[in-house]
User: Fold Alpha-L-rhamnosidase from Mucilaginibacter pineti.
Amino acid sequence: MKKLYITLLIISSCLICKAQLPPVFDAGRAAEAQSTETVRKYLSPVRILWKSADAGSHITNAETLLKKGKGQADLSGTDLCVLTSTVQGKPGILLDYGKELQGGLQLITDQSRGGKPIRVRIRFGESASEAMSSIDTVKGATNDHAMRDFIVSVPWLGKLEIGNTGFRFVRIDLIDDNAELKLKEARAIFIYRDIPYLGSFKCSDTLLNKIWLTGAYTVHLNMQDYLWDGIKRDRLVWVGDMHPETSTIAAVFGYNDVVPKSLDLARDITPLPGYMNGMISYSMWWILIQHDWYMHNGNLKYLQQQKSYLIPLLKQYAQKVDANNSEALNDAGRFLDWPSSENAKGIHAGLQAMLVMTLNAGSELCTILKDPATARICDAAVARLKKNVPDANGSKQAAALLGLSGLLPADKANAELSAGGVHNYSTFFGYYMLQAKAKAGDYQGGISAIRDFWGPMLGLGATTFWEDFNIDWLPNASRIDELVPEGKKDIHGDYGAYCYKGFRHSLSHGWASGPTPWLTEHVLGVKVIEAGCRVIKIEPHLGDLTFAEGTYPTPYGILKIKHVKLAGGKIKTTVSAPKGVKIIQ
Assistant:
């Protein structure tokens, strides 16, 4: 089988694996196609972004660090970057590796004078300004979850590998007076799953193409030991974050063991009647993921393994409806996303809608699992909830869920979402705002929102999508891949709120990948109708695009699709489906 070996410096070079996957409901469940192991790749920096003052007398031959390394110390004494400190000055250098990476740093040293280990300070950063910061700054830089600012001793004539975090930039400083460091190499250790990008998307708008790939790459970085929310912070299995991520994985990678492994972890550490991650909504996301993952993969055996947990959880949720037909989800944290977290009425409306969505999905799963009694319990609770339609209270998060749940007519939900354009969008719930627009038939509005909300992150130098973004941050904002010029705002350090203030803000967060599955589903037009992709409906919505083409991974192989807009607006569609997949057009 032909695999894709990612070249991180040019993400658009991703190739489509031509081999077919075995059906996941077969014994192997695509184990051969999707490795569960991570690999290590070593990357030299692409540029030196900064050197300390008086670098001319303290740093020599720094550009040699940009050469391709070998990872081996030697006795040649050639091609060395030499950093020398005095009592008056200690040199430092800032390296740029070109793209956000997950991993650490490899340092290869030569025979510096003194013949002893030398202390250096290492600072990783997702932005250039974060790598230049200290953990005691007022802009929120921390060592939470992953060490990014620390002092280590490097060997005399040897190798040291350090760090395990998300980063693009690394700053290296000598610590002691009158020290000399002869540095042969400073390579990034890139740790990732060596898996093919089976899904693809290309259209007449190069910005949308880049957004699709960036969302895919963001989630790919977070497919580590488990499916994390972010590679710098929090590096945890947050089940709400997982829903956009698993939607992206289905559209890009197809089946991967990291998904059931992470779902099972969340289940096993959360005995009922508890709620996953302490959030009342996150166990609902677990149910919704189980439904969507089954629809894509058709793995009944795995779904059956969830029955003993799923059924009591559904019954627990079905009981959370009060005499006024209102959600009574008060026994854990009431949360949609952080930007909406101070809008109590909006949260109530959102949870009412989420409970409807969850119980509807649960009813379908119960039917599949041959438990009609619990399906009826779910249906009865939904019927009661539909009698009470709370006001979204200005929350676009709540409006999106109300529209998706059917509590609010789709056109009315879309009207609330369209007010003010992408103002008050959020990176997590932006996916559901896009989905609600699609339900209302406003596909062009969704395409425009993707350009207007996710596009500016790329314009600021992003190579992955961020935990949070607000278009009000844009005026006079600096790029993340430059040192902040005088008079400009630091887009990373100056903004943020709640748990992501300043440099604590994650710049590679999987919940922000929503445009990737959305473009595949609604522009490329791929809609799974029967579990396991046995039946797929192709219904493209090109909006102002002239063509769209791509691929979609199914358990039977790769589905290939191309749409071309003809004169008069009619769309010509060409589909090549693997055996076992029925196409409806």
Remarks:
- Residues 1-30 have pLDDT under 50 and may be disordered.
- The CA atoms of residues 24 and 553 lie 12 Å apart.
- The longest helix spans residues 344-368.
